[in-house]
Amino acid sequence: MKTNSKQIAWAISVVLAGVGLAGCSKNSDKLVTEQLNQSFEKADATVKQEVVQVNTAFQAGDYTRAISLMDQVVKNQPIDVAQKQAVNTLIIQTRQAVQQNPKLNTPELYKATEALMLSAHGEN
After folding, report:
1. Percent of the chain with pLDDT over 90
2. Between 20 and 30 A from 105 (CA), which of 12, 16, 49, 68?
3. Average pLDDT over residues 39-52
4. What's this model's pTM, rounded to 2 decimal places?
5. Number of C-alpha atoms within 13 angstroms, CB side, residue 49?
């Protein structure tokens, strides 16, 4: 799959801007799970179950797994604008967690995040 560097740069800047705008909040888990659940509420049962797994991993602090699972969801179907926004929220809140605890910033998380951003915002 050939990617458009302008689209990737745009997606990265959107996520980075969101990190700057997102405040530290105890409700970040709820924000992510609600947005994902709402944006995928009309998806088929299999996709909904995958979103539940994403939410469970995110809430458990297993950010690499949450991001990787979300990447699988995005790769398996086209996503709409609301779903892309929910994916962005997941990425933003994950980056917030990493800022608060730099030990979470692993090469695996970086690669998973990059893959998800390409899947969600790259050329389809």
Report:
1. 71
2. 49
3. 96
4. 0.78
5. 3
